[in-house]
């Protein structure tokens, strides 16, 4: 099978170089740039899609790991953030990670119980309304919901000069 493919490529390659009328060269000059743009577009698109999936995996892993613990120490959160950064951006890059515990207050509103980010700060004030949940009926009385937020700025490796950075945000 491989020999037959090689023979076909050699025969057509010789026919292409033997053609002296110029039609094949003109056709290639017209189609070649389009094919190159399509090739690099597919490469860039698949790389961006892969990075988007990594960010989604990172935020899901963060919320899953934290929700399995009875208590979370600040030192444990730092280790957890380091691991999540490796999932979201294995080749480096700036990743912003926020971890939020949301509870229901006495009026039935979603409020922040505690929060941490990967810089060691408190991104949301305890008791402040948390409006990023789609519905307030998710939280039972006396329970909390762990919400992870990951932001990653994707810059293309091939077309940095042509395309601006894409910001991925997953909650």
Query: How far apart, in Å, are the first and last alpha carbons?
Result: 49 Å
Main-sheet strand order equals 2-1-3-4
Helix content: 40-55%
Number of helices: 3
Radius of gyration (Å): 26 Å
The amount of beta strand, in percent, is 15-25%
What spatial form do the alpha-carbon principal axes imply? elongated
Structural class: alpha+beta
The unreliable regions are none
Q: Assembly state here?
A: single chain
Q: Using DSSP, what is the number of strands? A: 4
Task: Compute the average pLDDT.
Answer: 82
Spell out the helices and strands N to C. Answer: HHHEEEE
Major β-sheet, in short? 4 strands, antiparallel
Question: Which labels suit this protein?
Answer:
171 residues, alpha+beta, four-stranded antiparallel sheet, 4 strands
Question: How would you characterize this protein structure?
Answer:
This protein has helices at 2-18, 23-67, 74-88, and strands at 95-104, 110-117, 144-154, 166-170. The longest helix is centred in the first third of the chain and has 45 residues, at 23-67. The relative contact order is 0.13. By secondary structure, it is of the alpha+beta class. The protein has three helices and four strands; from the N terminus they run αααββββ.
List the helices and strands and how they pair.
Layout: H1 2-18, H2 23-67, H3 74-88, E1 95-104, E2 110-117, E3 144-154, E4 166-170
Antiparallel strand pairs: 1-2, 1-3, 3-4
């Amino acid at each position: 099978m491989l020999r037959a493919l090689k023979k076909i490529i050699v025969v057509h390659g010789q026919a292409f170089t033997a053609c002296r009328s110029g039609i094949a060269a003109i056709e290639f000059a017209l189609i070649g740039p389009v094919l190159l743009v399509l090739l690099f577009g597919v490469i860039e698109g698949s790389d961006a899609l892969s990075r988007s999936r990594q960010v989604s995996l990172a935020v899901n892993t963060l919320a899953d790991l934290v929700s399995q613990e009875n208590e979370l120490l600040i030192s444990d959160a730092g280790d957890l953030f380091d691991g999540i950064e490796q999932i979201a951006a294995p080749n480096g890059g700036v990743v912003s990670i926020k971890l939020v515990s949301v509870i229901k207050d006495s009026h039935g509103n979603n409020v922040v119980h505690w929060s941490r980010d990967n810089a060691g700060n408190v991104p949301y004030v305890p008791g402040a309304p948390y409006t990023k949940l789609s519905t307030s009926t998710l939280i039972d009385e006396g329970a909390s919901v762990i919400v992870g937020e990951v932001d990653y700025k994707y810059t293309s490796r091939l077309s940095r000069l042509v395309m601006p950075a894409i910001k991925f945000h997953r909650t």
